[in-house]
Amino acid sequence: MSDLTIKNLKKVFEGLEIIKGIDLDIRDHEFVVFVGPSGCGKSTLLRLIAGLEEVTSGHIYLDDKEITDIAPAKRDLAMVFQTYALYPHMTVRKNMSFALDLAGIDKKEVEAKVNEAARILELEPLLERKPKALSGGQRQRVAIGRAIVRHPKIFLFDEPLSNLDAALRVQMRLELARLHQELNATMIYVTHDQVEAMTLADKVVVLNAGRVEQVGSPLTLYHHPVNRFVAGFIGTPKMGFLKAKVESVNAGGVLVSLSCGHQVEIAVKGEHLQRGSRVTLGVRPEHLRITAASDSTFKAKLTVSEHLGADTFCYVETADQEVLTVRAAGHFQMKFGSDIGLELDVQQCHLFDDQDRTLARITTPL
Amino acid sequence: MNTSSLPVEHSAQAEESSQSVQSQRRRKSKISLAMVSPSVVVLLAWMIIPLSMTIYFSFIRYNLLYPGDEGFVGLENYYYFMTDAGFTAGLTNTLWLVGSVLLISVVLGVLIAILVDNMFWGRGIVRVLLISPFFIMPTVSALVWKNLLLNPVSGVFAAIWNFFGATPIDWFTHYPLGAIIMIVSWQWVPFAVLMLMTAMQSLDQEQKDAARLDGAGPIAIFWHITLPHLMRPIAVVVMIETIFLLAIFAEIFTTTGGGPGYETTNLAFLIYTQALLEFDVGVASAGGLIAVVIANIAAFMLIRIVGKSLTEKH
Ligand SMILES: Nc1ncnc2c1ncn2[C@@H]1O[C@H](COP(=O)(O)OP(=O)(O)O)[C@@H](O)[C@H]1O
Ligand SMILES: [Mg+2]
Predict the structure, then answer these.
(1) Which of A139, A245, B130, B240 has its Cα between 20 and 30 A from that of A41?
(2) Looking at residue B9, what is its pLDDT?
(3) Ligand nearest to the CA of A17
(4) Looking at residue B91, what is its pLDDT?
(5) What is the mean pLDDT of residues A72-89?
(6) What is the DSSP string of A136-168?
């Protein structure tokens, strides 16, 4: 069992509140990813859980046992750091056995555990090397190995892949997913890279400025973001946002007019909206289509297109200087500055009120 | 280029051109040699002339009190220097002085560097104060210690001893070498602190965090993380301090004058007494060369011991 419960956790650094009251439940065997922009307090939250920072107020429970004030080593957690933090003068073997040696565990048992971790991570040929003689990916594996040998209840990862090159990052990502299966462990993983979040997580926690914005499965966050921040943060390329004005609210949805005059009806509940209220319409690149300029009242100008092979991402600018991204087919060709028309997949659009909260859908789109 | 190993059916033209390239290269290297030669010559002269003069003096009878009597005497000067009543004392005192000051400055340097690495109010000022003794001239600091601190009647130490009802110690009479070691340490601990303090800042905080998670307490972190991290700067401190400590002179000259007896005479001071108190340049030169040899032996051993951690890549 390894359930982690966080209650109203706060952390103040030099008079500045960095973590502003976080409540969180993490279940056994879950792969939880904390994601958010740089400086939002992800590392701080992880360090609070690990016990490396002192909690200002609030409580942390591991399996109903309060660990808020327990020493880091006694929490049954292991952490993998962004810079790997290997001990440079120790061999790989010694790096991995350090915690067990300090705990005074029997030599044979230590050896067995280190060998087991080395086998899982394919580190056997490197055991007698020093960290400086390893590549980035190998160092990362040693750092993970150091965590594995302790058989912790929860693994904590702080941006473990951010120092690796792109190809290695993909490989290590798959390896981490495999490791999660093989060890059947609970993992908390911090990243600012939402691709990592989407691919690895059972549950994503979106953090922003020391607060939890939304908790949910990757697809829930993608399809049902609770507010504009989550909508903009999850998904690449980003969701496009358009200023809009409410024309009328009725049973079937909300009719809004965009700044260019184009009107669309979105099937969301808008009881608290009045005619004339300012709202924001959000639309993802795949829910936009480029048409001939004459075919649509929603007009724009093509600025840049990025050809990725399978897809082409077109950046378009509306008359009101709002920039949208459109996903088009890979063979899409059009000249810079061309006038185009845009077609929205109204079923898939999101509407945010003036406080940037998402308006609930009337029917869930398929 | 080894042309004999080239295939024999080599067109004359190719040979010619390769030769011209070769000669061009040779000309170029000649030019560069000509360019660097002045500095090489100056550096060589800088080193060779004093050294050869010293060697020459050490083999002749050369006493300023008896001019005109400069005959070749073989190893006599060396014999006189090494059998001088002060030689054994000078050698052991030198080793004691260097050894103790090194030990004190490394141990205190490490402890102080770790201490001031923690955040506390006024850390900046404390750091500056800590390294400031290093910038005081040796003669000045020796005089300050002699007259203000260690003086058995009016010194600060005497006042402290009196305050606790103890009899003040006459340092320069009873523990002369100890007093010198104290003074020299006071000057060289700051150097160690400076070097190690800077090194502490490059210690990866996440390594310490990782060690804490691995269950290491402050002492285990010191032995397993901090000290290994400091090995390289410690080696640098030991090397540099050794070079300067072998030649300590001003502190001895201003305080004890090498005495009482030979108790605080080191090799540098012994050479001085030979040359300028007994006016025997020949014996002093021999002593200087012996000191060079000893310094080289010390340097060689140091490099064997601590140099390994310097050349090892991290
Ligand atoms: N030890 C500290 N002292 C003061 N401020 C800190 C400390 N650690 C982090 N912070 C501040 O907390 C904020 C969040 O930092 P962090 O948790 O590292 O963000 P990230 O989400 O990028 O990991 C930052 O603004 C940072 O300046
Ligand atoms: Mg961070």
Answers:
(1) A139
(2) 46
(3) 1
(4) 85
(5) 90
(6) HHHHHHHHHHHHHTT--SEEEEESTTTTS-HHH
Regions of chain B where pLDDT drops below 70: 1-21, 306-314
Tell me the whole-structure pTM to 2 decimals: 0.79
Query: What interface predicted TM-score (ipTM) does this complex get?
Result: 0.82
- The predicted pLDDT at position A276 comes to 87
**Angstrom distances, CA of residue A257 to CA of A2, A139, A247, A264, A285:** 50, 55, 6, 6, 20
Q: Does the Cβ of A38 fall within 6 Å of ligand 1?
A: yes
Domain-wise residue ranges, chain A: 4-232, 237-352
pLDDT digits (tens, 9 = 90+) for A101-120: 988 889 999 999 999 889 88
Q: Is 1.10.3720.10 the CATH number for B79-313?
A: yes
Asked whether the beta carbons of residue B210 and residue A146 sit closer than 8 angstroms, the reply is: yes
Q: What is the mean pLDDT of residues A314-341?
A: 89
> Does CATH place domain A4-232 in 3.40.50.300?
yes
8 Å CB contact between A144 and A121: yes
Per CATH, which fold does A237-352 belong to?
OB fold (Dihydrolipoamide Acetyltransferase, E2P) (2.40.50)
Give B179-239 as a 3 state SS string. Answer: HHHHHHHHHHHHHHHHHHHHHHHCCCHHHHHHHHHCCCCHHHHHHHHHHHHHHHHHHHHHH
Which of A202, A186, A183, A206 is closest to A194 using CA atoms?
Answer: A206
Least confident residue range of A43-52, A147-156, A355-364: A355-364
Parse chain B into domains and list their residue ranges: 3-58, 79-313
Ligand nearest to the backbone CA of A39: 1
